Structures are given as C-alpha cells and as structure tokens.
Amino acid sequence: MFGGLAFMVNERMILSVMGDGSLLIRAAPERADELLTADGARPADMGTGRNMGKGWIAIDDAAVATQEDLEFWVGVTLEYAGRERG
Q1: Residue 81 CB: number of other CB atoms within 10 A?
Q2: Where does residue 78 rank: exposed (0-12), middle (13-18), buried (19+ CB within 10 A)?
C-alpha cells in the first residue's frame, strides 16, 4: 500500500515500510501534533499538496535507525490500532 509493505492489526493498517526504509504510520489524531515534534516526523501526503489527514505521519528512515526508535513508532501505531472504533 502506498508503495510499501503494509502491516495490519484489527483490520486497520498500522504502518507501511517504504522502499527507502521510511515508515508511514497511523496514529491517534489527537496525538498528531505532539508526535510531529519528533525528529524525522512529518505529516504524510499522497503527493504534492494532498495531505492524508491528521494522524497519518511519515517517519524518515534515519528516525527509525535504532531498535528503540522503531519500537517507539510501532508502539504508537499499535496503541491506535487497539482502540475501540467509534
């Protein structure tokens, strides 16, 4: 999906690993502003000027270079995937 290898939990896409090693993640929209302050995080888009919406975050490959960094972002998206749908 989106040119990468997507992973799903509870019928939700939680993240996609892109060909360049970056990630596309889905996070709780209410945490987006906080998460976007992290190094290497930016709002995800579907092309120039087409924002995917609050909670879709692109993570640069350098920002997931360590096991600890990767576990943080996977945890963020698993937290969202585990929430009840409303």
Answers
A1: 19
A2: middle
C-alpha 67/C-alpha 18 separation (Å) is: 17
Q: Where are the domains of the chain?
A: 4-81
The span from the CA of 19 to the CA of 31, in Å, is: 26
The pTM score is: 0.86
| Alpha-carbon distances, residue 34 vs 39, 43, 57, 74, 83 (angstroms) | 11, 12, 11, 16, 19
**Domain 4-81 falls under CATH 3.90.1150.30:** yes
Encode pLDDT of 42-76 as tens digits.
Answer: 999 877 778 888 899 999 999 999 999 999 999 99
pLDDT tens track for 4-33: 889 988 888 889 998 888 899 999 999 999
